[in-house]
Specification:
The protein has about 400 residues and is α+β, with helices and mostly antiparallel strands. About 50% of the residues lie in helices and about 15% in strands. It has a 7-stranded antiparallel sheet with strand order 1-2-3-6-7-8-9, with helices on one face. A hairpin with a 2-residue loop joins β2 and β3. The longest helix has 23 residues. It is elongated, with a radius of gyration of 29 Å.
């Protein structure tokens, strides 16, 4: 679809409110699952991944650099690349434990463990601690997401990866896992489930919009995108973010009629007149040749309550190329429903000055002018029409 609106790429916030870390083995059995994290800091996409989150007297800080692999049950570090490291620090009830993992002289992971400020052997107690804290670190930071996704895919397919993503704690980490998953060949069912997972579990509208824009190629390749894709779009409450996704959808080459209809239906549901008008004003009139598509488009236009914003859309259509007689008549009917005499008269004057020769258009213009309450505005439109 030809789309005149410019799609601006934006940096979206990486971290949103997350759920508290689940209990860390038997020693942490008292912590309630699902308690809100009170503070967090994240930077998951730099050279060094960093995350720190806290809940009451329990906090975890993790840093990871390089290529890291974990064993099959995510209880230990399997390998770490040269120059890489994994550092974990946990404080709970005043007790501090920390671990640094680096590649040793032979390349095997080398661990340095401390507890209560004292260097300790990495013994059975330390291994039990690491096996309980490591899954939390993995799910907050998405460290080694590429190797984990490949391992989980090989073992259980896309469903197993999506199950794991549903347990990932932060929006940013979910997106990292989803990007890795979408490198694989996914079935229609996999795509449906991924979109539903995004709609229901990604709380950040910005992160949600970013994923949907990134994954357009996977979803819009067929005649109709899965309904779940537009469910995810419609779950975006921030109209600026939804507008950005709809603009990207509308700008997709060869967009099908079904997807175009769903795009306009989604736009109609936006609460912000400004964002709605901004999106609709970018639609090329030549894309409205199908009667059903045009009807859906003008339903969205008519849902704009602010007359100034509605007029902006109608004026842009009028100034575009390829506006058909039928759609010109639709613009006049939409203008006739405006409550503002100034905006209504202003648009009707634009049409009149364009010198419409079609009798039906001139009749519709005259009829719309009769609905202007202001005598002065009404006469200005009728006078302009008489001069053409």
């Amino acid at each position: 679809m030809v789309f005149r609106a410019t799609l601006l790429a934006s940096c979206l916030a990486f971290a949103q409110q997350a759920q508290a870390a689940p209990a860390l083995g038997a020693a942490h059995a008292g912590q309630e699952r699902g308690a809100k994290v009170q503070s967090n800091e994240f930077n998951l996409e730099g050279e060094e991944q960093f995350a720190r989150w806290a809940n009451g007297d329990h906090s975890i800080e993790a840093r990871a650099k390089g290529r890291i692999e974990f064993n099959d049950d995510d209880s230990d570090v399997k390998s770490i690349s040269r120059g890489g490291h994994l550092r974990i620090k946990e404080e709970r009830g005043g007790v501090v434990r920390s671990l640094e993992v680096v590649p040793g002289p032979d390349g095997a992971p080398q661990k340095s463990y401390t507890a209560r400020g004292q260097r300790r052997e990495f013994d059975a107690e330390a291994r039990a601690w690491l096996s309980s804290v490591l899954p939390l670190v993995i799910r907050h930071t998405a460290v080694a997401a590429d190797t984990r996704v490949q391992r989980i895919l090989a073992r259980g397919g896309a469903d197993a990866v999506l199950d794991e993503i549903s347990r990932v704690e932060t929006n940013s980490a979910k997106l990292i896992y989803l990007r890795q998953l979408f490198k694989a060949r996914l079935s229609a069912d996999d795509l449906q489930r991924a979109a539903r997972l995004v709609a229901r579990t990604v709380s950040s509208d910005g992160d949600k919009a970013r994923f949907l824009v990134e994954s357009l190629g996977s979803y819009l390749g067929g005649e109709a995108a899965p309904a779940s894709f537009f469910e995810a779009v419609n779950s975006i409450r921030a109209d600026g973010d939804r507008r950005r996704v709809l603009a990207a959808v509308a700008g997709t080459k060869g967009l099908s009629r079904a997807n175009l209809l769903r795009t306009f239906e989604s736009a109609k549901g936006m609460a912000s007149d400004g964002d709605k008008a901004g999106f609709l004003a970018g639609v090329d009139p030549r894309e409205l040749g199908d009667a059903g598509v045009a009807a859906a488009f003008f339903e969205a236009v008519d849902s704009i309550r602010a007359d100034g914003d509605r007029r902006r859309v109608l004026s842009t259509l009028l100034g575009g190329r390829g506006l058909s007689r039928e759609n010109l008549l639709r613009t006049l009917r939409s203008a006739a429903r405006m409550s503002s005499d100034g905006d209504k008269a202003g648009f009707l004057l634009e049409v009149a000055h364009a010198g419409p020769q079609d009798a039906s258009v001139r009749a519709a213009l005259r009829e719309a002018a009769r609905g202007i309450s202001s005598e002065g505005d009404r006469q200005r439109v009728l006078a302009a029409l008489a001069q053409e």
